Amino acid sequence: MSTPKRFLFVLLILLVGLLAACGPAAPAEAPAEEAPAEAAPPEEAPAEEAAPAEEAAPAEEEPAMEPVTIQVFYPVAVDAPIAAIFQGYIEDFQAEYPYITVEPVFSGGYGDVQTAIQTTIDGGGEPPALAVMLATAIYDLINADYIVPLDEHIAGMEDGDAYVADFLPAFLANSYYDGQLWSVPFQRSAVVMYYNVDMFAEAGLEPPTSWQTWAEAAQALTVTEGDVTNWGLHFSSDWPYWLFQPLAIGAGQNILDDDCTVTFDDPAVIEAVQFYIDLSAEYGAMPAGVQATWPTDPPDLASGATAMIVHSSGSLTGLLEQADFELGVMPYPGKEEGTTASVPGGGNFYMMNGVSAEKQDAAWKFMEFITQPDYVADFSINTGYIANRYSAYDTDAMQAYVADVPQALLTRDALQSAGAELATQNLGQVRGIFHDYLQRAINGEMGAAEAMAAAQAEAEAALADYCE
Amino acid sequence: MQSQAARKPFKPLPYLLTLPTAVFVAVFTVWPVLLSIYQSFFRQRMNIAKFREPSFIGLENYIDLLNDPYFIKVIGNTLKYIIGTVPISILLGFLFALLVNRKVRGVGFFRLAFFHPMVLPMVSAATVWLFFFTPDYGLFNTALRFLGYNGPQNWTGNPNLAILSVIIVAIWKNSGYYMIFYLAGLQNLPTDVFEAAALDGANGWQTLWQITFPLMRRTTLFISTIAFIDAFRTVDHIFVLTSGGPSRASTVLLFELWSQRFEYQDIGVSAAITVIFVVILLAFTITNFIVSERKEA
């Protein structure tokens, strides 16, 4: 091999290495034009959803408005044709506001939407006017100056206070900061417990009303045949904070007080960790250790491999389709007899910083439009998300739906005993710390109290830079 | 490869032809690396208002990282992952290639069977594996029990097994890919040396290790480079299978980089990890090349 060729070969290998290393490694530096790729509008949406007849105030013949185009980044996190549904709403909206063009940009999961927006803004590009991101992302988004408050737009409404007051309060828990409103609920869910009513009936059991009766029911419904055990309860813990929170709330103390105060080492939280461990260690009602079973739990319940699961309310529609038994839905039983607990989840609409006032106005019109009761009801019915406004439950469509699927009301009612979802400053790191130590406790590497004390100390250190 | 690269007049055409590639490499590789090196000397966190503007802190990001027991753990996990995946998938790739290089009936089926994991998208494949790994009824556990295994079955949730489970999926995914390179190499081998070996009375084993394998050395170099880089950059299945857990037991370098950049929004530290990443890959690639060139001499 001659020297130049040898050199070229080395160079080639180096480049392959560099490309491999840098492709995923340095996304922040990707030129901005890359990020918001003019996503092709979703395939012609079959308007089978029969977009709710809209009576809303006729677009006050906005005289010769300048045409404006806004982008909306949204994720798909449930098993529903969100893109088609969304496209239908956009067509209705554009019919009413012909000068506004809305470009929906499907962007993957929640994390991907946020990543895409971060990359766009950090790279100096123009973000979309509107995005659906996790309600809990609020502090990170504010601190990075990615979003703007909505109070001005609310104040401009005919009755802004009534508009805001109509949202279920649990869904606004992570919308306020510094006395301002930063997001409007959109695709919202809650943690619930699903159970196989038929199995309960066969075993002569009532739905649980406390930790005690919950654990006993799970124990009674655990059946071993040969090598295979059908567990009474599946309780996924691979990304555990969300499903765990209702345990802590049910014990009397959520895992946070506010954006700067976590309460991981509170005795009630420790008790909740211990209860999770005891479900397998004491009652033998659930597999031991961390269970990486989020995607497999709903099919397991549907196929009878388990009698109970805890999961998102968003799985309701899929479970109802698959289960050939009567499906029960309820919040977690609390520690004390007769108490229950849940926690909300899901995504809100955020208005992005760094887009023109015209676009922000158009974006607000779209938010207002799509959160009208008829659309909220329609979205809930077609996706399984919880309708997030009280008035949506008064619509004819929703009335008819809950008459048919009473479980849809149960998911809403679960929210009455809900605490706030974990949302703190420096959320990624604080949540990572909590996951780390909670999983150590669950896997028996540390005692519950010891693990939570360590988590508390590390989380406080991680919050120090924000909360002095 | 013959060399005639003596003194020749300068010809612009080859350079012109490589220009598009060179531009891409400069924009998408060289520039980001330089930028990362620069950013790694600054403190910049997008989600802390007072650290949003970068401030120069010298080597502090590197010092913090190397003193952070989590980061050391991540490096350890990465090493385990590399040692677990690279040699075994290369060896399996070679064996598969030997198998499917034979002229036997149904060889097409085996080629397909070995290669199909490569065609599947990693995320879908990992989702399927998640079901395989399910305790009790999962296919993987059922098969193991049939073979007499009665250890822990909670592969993805057990702190000692989580990394092994992502290694298993990576081996399954990559071996068939490496097989293709070996197969191509085997089919290009000169037949005369094998005839000579047969005349000299070499047995199958001697032929394999003293002729086939040495002749495949360049292929092996290429594959080991690719495999090593793959091991660093394949994290899709970790998101699906373990989310880096439990308790970060399966968090590898690139996963940590993603967390730092997009979850913690820490630009300085993620730039420092990027630089460490690039340095490791460069060091490996150059060493690998030098060592193999020396052998040839």
How would you characterize this protein structure?
The complex is a heterodimer of chains A (468) and B (297). Chain A is of the alpha+beta class and 468 residues long. Chain A folds into two domains: 62-189 and 345-417, Periplasmic binding protein-like II (D-Maltodextrin-Binding Protein, domain 2); 190-343 and 423-463, Periplasmic binding protein-like II (D-Maltodextrin-Binding Protein, domain 2, 3-Layer(aba) Sandwich), CATH 3.40.190.10. Helix content of chain A is 43%, strand content 16%. Chain A is built from 19 helices and 15 strands. Chain A has helices at residues 3-25, 82-96, 110-122, 138-143, 151-155, 160-165, 169-172, 197-202, 211-220, 241-251, 267-281, 297-302, 316-322, 357-370, 373-383, 396-404, 407-414, 427-442, 448-463; strands spanning 68-74, 100-106, 130-134, 176-177, 180-181, 184-196, 223-225, 228-234, 256-258, 261-262, 306-312, 327-330, 332-333, 340-341, 344-351. In chain A, the strands form four sheets. In chain A, strands 1, 2, 3, 6, 7, 8, 11, 12 and 15 form a nine-stranded mixed β-sheet that branches. A two-stranded antiparallel ribbon of chain A has the order 4-5. The longest helix of chain A is centred in the N-terminal third of the chain and has 23 residues, at 3-25. Chain B is an all-alpha fold and 297 residues long. Chain B has one domain (70-296): Orthogonal Bundle (MetI-like fold), CATH 1.10.3720.10. In chain B, 71% of the residues lie in helices and 1% in strands. Chain B contains 13 helices and two strands. Chain B has helices at 12-39, 60-67, 69-100, 107-119, 122-132, 139-146, 162-187, 191-199, 204-215, 217-233, 236-241, 253-263, 267-296; strands at 42-43, 55-56. Chain B has a two-stranded antiparallel ribbon with strand order 1-2. Chain B starts with 11 loop residues before the first helix and ends with a helix. The interface between A and B is large, with 69 and 72 residues.
